[in-house]
Amino acid sequence: MGRRSGRYEMAAGAPASGGRRDAICNFVICNDSSLRSQPIIFNPDFFVEKLRHEKPEVFTELVVSNITRLIDLPGAELAQLMGEEDPKLPGANNTASGFFRSLMSLKRKEKGVVFGSPLTEEGIAQVSQLIEYLHKNLRAEGLFRVPGNSIRQQILKDALNSGTDIDLDSGEFHSNDVATLLKMFLGELPEPLLTHKHFHAHLKIADLTLFDEKGNKTSTPDKERQIEALQLLFLILPAPNRSLLKLLLDLLYQTAKKQDKNKMSAHNLALMFAPHILWPRNVTANDLQENITKLNNGVTFMIKHSQKLFKAPVYIRECARLHYLGSRAHTSKDDLDLLTSSGSKELQPLKSQKRSRLDSCHQEETQQRTEEALKELFLHVHNMPDSAKKKKLIRQFNKHPAALTPGTDVPTSPAPRRTRSRSFSGLIKRKVLGTPVILERKSRDSTPEPVRVSKENVQLLQKCGSPAHMSQAKLKSLEGQKEGSCRRMRARLLSKDSSSL
């Protein structure tokens, strides 16, 4: 069994040449026949990640345009979200310098390899050891609320900064030590995990509420729109921030599920982590004032719905897929409704063309068979010796001209025409024997002689309509009538010839 295995990840650590990051794409090929019936696991956000990596400007414009569809962002706040202007945060104009604010600034100046440095993939790899350990110890009462031992925390912090391997399962450290150190790491980042650019957008998401029947806003939160807006905002986060946020919210979600043991609900966890996830740096609770409740409730909502927030909306997936596989990309959720209406309309002209093509083919076959029967009958009459019977049969031919048999059209085009004889027998001779006499037209304005039409054929045409519009059933009936009359006439001629002989 030949097998190659691997993983797909975005290496967002050190930028490659040109400011872009490299992508590592590995895949699994298995030739085991017993596994072919198993379902294939495909990442539904593959094209979303591909578009984000290869064309970040197109991706950002796509996501931001859908964010503005959900929340109302003025020009300045939209420019801050796009990174075109510096964020204007609460407390930025306050010149008062309290002890708490000065202490936080001093802590962030003590930069190490991991703590106090900008977020990188290397730092996430170190901190992920703490998160994996806490997943195994979620039953500790007061987790993330009860502080750990400061001496053990410092030892653990130095080990992480130096990059040495740590055995957290040795029993040297307590779960409260690890939980407190994780909060310390988040608090010493230069900016919150959700970045300063997204601060005003998260405040607007908290105001998304349902409408009543009269179109007035209610106090009930619109959870579907809030989830959709958070999904879009998380898509345009920096890759390291998004990776760590996913690990952190999943940990808090699992912690809240064990609240009967650890006494930590989603709201209690939000109170512990909102200052590190969403609050701007260098601000206090007094600077936030009435917004502090919105921010804490927003983090509570993220913890409860964390399993849905890191999936791209369906219309973003479809747009990214069509960007690479299709000829037209849909830029919003409403554009996807046009996919189903266009497909059915394009099939109608194709069906009508196919039907008309079949009808024309059937008419040509019917005309060919009729002409062959008439030629055979006329040759038989033409080979008869000259007599009154032959003249009588030729007069009967004059009553059924071949020009009006089913499937032929009366000539109406002004193209050059053959000269016609006054007798219909001459027309049949030219058609069957292939000896037409071609003469030049005397003038361009000359009109062709009209075809003689008998009363029987006129009545037949009035009943059946135009030959081009006859149905297949009528064509078959007319063909049968014509062939039957030909057979009867041939039998009558043969019987008369035998009697005369």
Could you describe the 3D structure shown?
By secondary structure, the chain is mainly α. 55% of the residues lie in helices and 4% in strands. The chain contains 20 helices and six strands. It has helices at residues 46-54, 56-70, 75-82, 99-109, 121-135, 150-162, 175-187, 199-205, 223-235, 239-257, 259-262, 266-277, 285-288, 291-304, 314-325, 338-382, 388-398, 424-433, 455-464, 472-500, and strands spanning 3-4, 8-10, 23-25, 29-30, 209-211, 217-221. The protein has a two-stranded antiparallel sheet. Helix 12 packs across helix 14. It is rod-shaped, with a radius of gyration of 44 Å. The termini are far apart. Mean pLDDT is 74; it is low at 1-30, 94-110, 327-331, 338-347, 402-415, 435-454 and 464-470.
Index terms:
501 residues, mainly alpha, 55% helix, two-stranded antiparallel sheet
Helix content: 40-55%
Q: Low-confidence spans: pLDDT under 50, at least 5 residues?
A: 1-30, 94-110, 327-331, 338-347, 402-415, 435-454, 464-470
Quickly count the helices.
Answer: 20
What structural class do helix, strand and pairing data support? Answer: mainly alpha
Query: What general form does the structure show?
Result: rod-shaped
How large is the radius of gyration?
A: 44 Å
Q: What composes the largest sheet?
A: 2 strands, antiparallel
The topology string of helices and strands comes to EEEEHHHHHHHHEEHHHHHHHHHHHH
Average pLDDT figure: 74
Number of β-strand runs: 6
Between the first and last Cα atoms, what is the distance in angstroms? 91 Å
Strand content bin:
under 5%
Largest sheet strand order: 1-4
